[in-house]
Write a sequence for this structure.
């Protein structure tokens, strides 16, 4: 339970320290005194996002610190989150003027989500506007599921349903992608077939270019090779003259040793020239090209040049890379079809699971509705709604949704013999308040919440009904720590302890304080609730009577 709350530099509160006890605690105060500010501070402990406008003095930080006395069952949570366990746990929020906020559990910094995970198990605040939530289907489902111990089934269903719907959206996306890929793939397949016909791995188009280029210069090549052969081999050619020179050098050997060297060098030159002549004659004989061969080369090269131009490329290697890319794209389209088949099978299996889970979840809901109605009506009778009837109508939808393919309607009648109608159409403010109180009485026990804070849940009632509400709250306070913010003296008088919120102005500065009242102060506070600011002996006596003094 909550044992202490410390507030520093928060809105109208400069400094406040409040010690809480177990049982039924009441908080009163004039409208505008700052009760909502107290709830705002507590909401920070519950993990609400920080609003930097609450910083009273921007030269200092805002600090809200709550101490809880925890049951042993929470120790495992601390171990799982690697936090120091202490049955007296301190939770702190700090808001800094430069725009940052920090969260701590037992002085260890934590993420806000971790703090929220813990405090949601420790305390629940029911604000005034939440009474209207009973008109909403989500609240009604949560109510039935909490009462019927159905929350784990609901969590499983919602997880399956989320996975199921996500996969369905993914399937639609894949199908759309596949259609686009097929359109693109048909064009790419056509281009791939064009490239495949080139047989790029088989042909050397650069060699074909050289061969074809050679065929266009046959006459020039013949003349060149013939000239080389004639110059070397004719009767007056180089070979004949060098042969004569070699004979002379052979004769001159005896004159000087250098002639022997000249002889050998001329001999080498003759050998080289003969080789050149033979190679020229061979090239000349090979110049005869088959016209059909030229046609084949031209055919292949024309197709090759066409693809280079079409794809704005310059080399055979680039075309080979493009062909591979086209093949990969076509294969990718094939993979999408496989993904669609696999995902379709997953969805089929998941449909079976989510349908089964919905059936189990809804079976519990159907069984729970009558039990919940009976429990609520028993409490409503205590609250002077003797003839009230409340029920929950479940109707199956044509397809599954986030609520299991069920629609829910809360039906209500406050008077005997009057047909039940949807609660949002017939319930008054006072009836809604009493019904919500009955709900909180039941659900807080189901959830085993240590602390429940009710903000003016008694709105719209007075007299005997107010007393009955106070008695129910007093009874609830024996099972948990219950804090009620109220304007009703009948309710405030039954609290174990009584806090009063006051607003004052000192040195041109407004400040809100929260004070624990003594018995005499309680009498005076109740008298003000009964008769207004100007209390009388009669109002004080009535206050004492309410307190059984």
């Amino acid at each position: 339970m909550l044992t202490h709350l410390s507030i520093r530099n928060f809105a109208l509160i400069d400094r406040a320290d409040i010690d809480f006890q177990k049982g039924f605690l009441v908080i009163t105060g004039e409208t505008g005194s700052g009760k909502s500010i107290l709830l705002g501070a507590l909401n920070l402990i519950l993990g609400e996002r920080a609003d930097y406008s609450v910083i009273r003095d921007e030269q200092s930080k805002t600090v809200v610190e709550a101490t809880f006395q925890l049951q042993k069952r929470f120790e495992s949570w601390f171990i799982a989150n690697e936090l120091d366990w202490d049955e007296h746990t301190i939770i702190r929020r700090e808001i800094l003027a430069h725009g940052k906020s920090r969260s701590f559990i037992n002085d260890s910094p934590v993420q806000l989500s971790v703090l929220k995970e813990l405090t949601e198990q420790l305390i629940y605040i029911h604000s005034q506007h939440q009474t209207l939530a009973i008109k909403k289907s989500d609240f009604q489902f949560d109510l039935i599921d909490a009462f019927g111990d159905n929350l784990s089934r609901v969590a499983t269903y919602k997880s399956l349903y989320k996975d199921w719907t996500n996969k369905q959206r993914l399937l639609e996306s894949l199908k759309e992608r596949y259609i686009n890929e097929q359109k693109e793939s048909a064009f790419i397949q056509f281009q791939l077939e064009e490239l495949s016909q080139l047989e790029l791995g088989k042909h050397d188009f650069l060699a074909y270019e050289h061969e074809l280029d050679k065929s266009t210069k046959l006459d020039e090549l013949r003349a060149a090779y013939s000239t080389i052969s004639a110059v070397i081999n004719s009767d007056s050619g180089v070979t004949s003259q060098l042969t004569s020179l070699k004979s002379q050098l052979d004769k001159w050997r005896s004159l000087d040793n250098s002639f022997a060297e000249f002889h050998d060098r001329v001999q080498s030159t003759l050998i080289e020239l003969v080789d050149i002549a033979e190679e020229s004659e061979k090239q000349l004989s090979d110049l005869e090209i088959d016209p059909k061969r030229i046609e084949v080369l031209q055919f292949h090269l024309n197709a090759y040049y066409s693809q280079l131009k079409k794809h704005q490329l310059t080399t055979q290697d680039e075309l080979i890379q493009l062909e591979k890319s086209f093949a990969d794209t076509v294969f990718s389209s094939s993979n999408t079809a496989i993904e669609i088949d696999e995902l379709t099978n997953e969805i089929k299996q998941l449909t079976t699971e989510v349908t089964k889970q919905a059936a189990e979840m809804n079976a519990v809901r159907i069984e729970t509705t009558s039990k919940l109605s009976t429990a609520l009506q028993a409490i409503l009778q205590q609250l002077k709604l003797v003839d009230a009837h409340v029920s929950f109508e479940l109707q199956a939808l044509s397809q599954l949704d986030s609520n299991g393919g069920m629609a829910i309607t809360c039906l209500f009648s406050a008077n005997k013999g009057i047909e039940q109608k949807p609660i949002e159409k017939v319930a008054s403010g006072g009836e809604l308040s009493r019904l919500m109180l009955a709900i909180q009485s039941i659900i807080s026990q189901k959830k085993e919440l240590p602390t429940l804070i009710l903000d003016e849940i008694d709105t719209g009632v007075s007299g005997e009904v107010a007393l009955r509400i106070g008695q129910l709250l007093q009874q609830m306070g024996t099972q948990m720590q219950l804090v009620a913010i109220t304007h009703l003296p009948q309710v405030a008088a039954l609290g174990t302890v009584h806090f009063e919120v006051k607003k004052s102005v000192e040195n041109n500065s407004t400040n809100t304080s929260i004070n624990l009242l003594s018995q005499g102060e309680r009498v005076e506070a109740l008298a003000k609730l009964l008769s207004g600011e100007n209390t009388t002996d009669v109002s004080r006596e009535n206050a004492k009577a309410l307190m059984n003094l």
